[in-house]
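Question (not urgent): is this output format expected?
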Amino acid sequence: MKKLLIATRNENKVREMRAVLGDSVELVPLPDNAPEVVEDGKTFYENALKKARQYSQYSNLPTIAEDSGLEVEALGGAPGIYSARFAGASAGSKENNRLLLEKLAGISAENRRARFVCCIVYKDGDVEKSFEGEVWGTIALEEAGETGFGYDPLFIPEGFNRTFAQLPIEVKNSMSHRFNAIKKLCKYIG
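Got this back:
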């Protein structure tokens, strides 16, 4: 079984990646002594690449790092790379979701088009390869659902009338931006 160092401490992302990868890959967690990476890139790719490069130094294993977020057309692509810290560096999902709803106040349902984006960078020695995934949908008028994390209670994927947080986790994982990127990674690494 192939081992990959997974360059994140976000347990929600780890759980989602494990669900998609199944038993085909063993995800090795970051060592406790690995410092946080400052995500100061201008794109999801730049942030994922920076994490892959820095964290690959902590093992002799191939490393996967990702950066992902939500882009809302009516907000010119915001929150984008600032999705996790949209309402401030110490804000959580509730504050981020509240701010998003405030910024979309008065904007009709048909003008709330958005997409989740994920960029995964695979680094193995000198090899650096990126894989992107996306899923389109709209932003709900209010939060709904108990599963998922982040903006899931607000994101209604195309073809559905429920948010990611209302859908069974297997359904979300079968179409998410992370799923789409991971499937491309799996095809590449075999």
